[in-house]
Amino acid sequence: MTKHIYLIDDDEGVRAALSALLSTMGWEVKAFSNGQIFLDNLTVTQPSCVLLDIRMPGKSGMTILETIQERDSSLPVIIMTGHGNVELCRRAFKGGALEFLTKPIDADVLIETISMALDQHEQALIAYKQQASYQQLFNQLSAREREVATLIIQGETSKQVAHILSISPRTVEAHRANIITKLEVNSLASLIHHYSYILPIIYPK
């Protein structure tokens, strides 16, 4: 699986040097002279990270960081700057940056940081795809099965579910058996483990 680095820096020399360095790691580097061009072409489907100069003409790095967070908060952003200070660093981390590096950047530190960012994003993409798969299965349940499944996932016993829904415990058990089959889990514990975190998505507050 190809991993992508989105390099945003207004300095052509920096773009050329970093592109050459990072390409030696087998990563696909896409370099942009300003943040707006990057945002206009932002489509992420593979493990990726953004290497962003924070001080640029036009849209500032902080503005770009904010927009990235709004569009896809799972996409790691590594901030670069030649004029770092504590306040700027604080703002970057508060804005969602993964790391803050001061130029000139040590090559080993940069590669290690990017590797960490790519691994983090790869895991986020895997989790997202798995979540989408679980949600699709959950949506195939009948309305009553969703009610029963939701109560079970929230920790209610079969007897409590029967009382809440005004149905018999035997009916609850029948629904539970169907739920476990349809959701492709092999136990109640597995049902709770895999599906508890998607309830806020299905039933947002």
UniProtKB/TrEMBL annotation:
Protein keywords: Activator, DNA-binding, Phosphoprotein, Transcription, Transcription regulation, Two-component regulatory system
GO biological process per UniProt: phosphorelay signal transduction system; regulation of DNA-templated transcription
InterPro entries referenced in this protein's UniProt entry, alphabetically: CheY-like_superfamily, Sig_transdc_resp-reg_C-effctor, Sig_transdc_resp-reg_receiver, Tscrpt_reg_LuxR_C, WH-like_DNA-bd_sf
Domain of life the protein comes from: Bacteria
PROSITE patterns, per database record: HTH_LUXR_1, HTH_LUXR_2, RESPONSE_REGULATORY
Pfam families: GerE, Response_reg
Ranges where the Response regulatory domain occurs: 4-118
Name of the protein: Bacterial regulatory s, luxR family protein
Lineage: Bacteria, Pseudomonadati, Pseudomonadota, Gammaproteobacteria, Enterobacterales
